[in-house]
Amino acid sequence: MKTPPFLILPVAAVALLSGCVGSGPNTQNGAVAGGALGALAGAIIGHNSGSRNTASGALIGGIVGAVAGGTLGNSIDHQNGTVYHSEAEATTTVVVQQPPPPPPPPRVIVVREPPPAPEVVYVDGFYAYNGRDYVWVAGHYERPPERGRAYIAPHWQRSERGYVWVEGYWR
Fold this sequence. Notes:
It is a single chain. By secondary structure, the chain is α+β, with helices and mostly antiparallel strands. It folds into 2 domains: 5-79, no CATH class; 87-170, no CATH class. It contains 4 helices and 9 strands; from the N terminus they run H-H-H-H-E-E-E-E-E-E-E-E-E. The strands form 4 sheets. Strands 1-8-7 form a 3-stranded antiparallel β-sheet. It has a two-stranded antiparallel sheet with strand order 2-5. A two-stranded antiparallel sheet has the order 3-4. The longest helix is centred in the middle third of the chain and has 26 residues, at 54-79. The protein is elongated and about 60 Å long.
């Protein structure tokens, strides 16, 4: 059975956007842009290899593009210090017997620009732990989630397995 072309875009959009819920803004933007570009490229390639392959090419290209774009966007979100919406979401798989001491904060003069929007909150710079060493994440403005009331900074938390790294999150 041939997939009606008018169904491809809405189904792909719903699948794509539902997979991005709760992720950072660059993950979402990357997935949407990658999906759109992938669908277009897939449709062109599918059409050039036979007119019956246009819809399936667009669908496959859209999925591959969304995954690639979302992955790249997610990497940028983590470099920018995207914070999570709950402690469970922020808890990583990094477990150590004794947490390594963080280096001292870099000696820089921070000049805060005015907030880009009234609802954003400034998150102070912090060290993120990537599983091997600490990486400094500069302070930045963050839009709290609707139910976010307080920002909890990244930290080590004791567990039955040892110490677990917990990324910053909103509580």
